[in-house]
């Protein structure tokens, strides 16, 4: 039984995170890196196909299923998790270390979910673990932003569950497959993914919460939530033409807000939203070349955006501010 649990990708990180508060600081970071390395190696051995199923009250669940695009996302999620551990080695904050590792594990497990009920569990787990990274900002603004962030993430999960129930009612089952967005079930699932992918008019939580998170928390947040949604959009809605227009709006409008923003971490949040738009356009085009480009862009974006947030975090840590108007003479520091 225990072997089966640990065979679920990401579960090693989720359960391993529970031990972190008990470990001394000098052991904690190396323990996390070892877990991430072993988890990444295990995931890399998984071939495309269904690898683990279960039956719950007569409902067939697909606990582990890999698609052609699953491995690249799983690999870069592990890379992002490892980079954050290294970046956060100067900290001794148990709650952010625990939440960050569990958050990464939940996102990785969600990649391999083969049905919407299993996905829903990990979908909500990413919400509840990641909110602690926003709370770790330890300001009144971060508290408010965290509550608004959690509200939107939980709402996304509720809408996802509603879509899953409608699929079941239609007799389609819970399996994650290509969906028709014109049906109530398909629209609910698309809306759930759209909230996490920061679609237009659903994106306020991103620019609200990410800049208020802790210096290291923002790095983790930038990697997982939105890219998990991009992955799911590619699985369920590849070739959906309206996504081209949605993505085009996402690429354009955040830029206008970014150029008038003074908080450089918020500028990066707008930039992140902008780059998600290019990925959504690729999914809307839906050809093999477009989807491969989307996956490659998501892979690269996770790494370079993490590095940008690390750089800005270093500036904030060193100077106490991320406001461009207060960073004159930064090169001297």
Brief synopsis:
Helix content is 69%, strand content 5%. The chain has 333 residues and is mostly helical.
How would you describe the overall organization of this protein?
The chain has one domain. 69% of the residues lie in helices and 5% in strands. It has 13 helices and 2 strands. Strands 1-2 form a two-stranded antiparallel ribbon. A hairpin with a 2-residue loop joins β1 (49-56) and β2 (59-66). α5 runs antiparallel to α6 (116-135). It is globular. The termini are far apart. The mean pLDDT is 90.
Principal-axis shape equals: globular
Rg, please?
Answer: 19 Å
Low-confidence stretches: none
- Count of individual beta strands: 2
Strand composition percent: under 5%
- The ordered H/E elements are HHHEEHHHHHHHHHH
Helix content: 55-70%
Mean pLDDT: 90
SS class: mainly alpha
| Biggest sheet overview | 2 strands, antiparallel
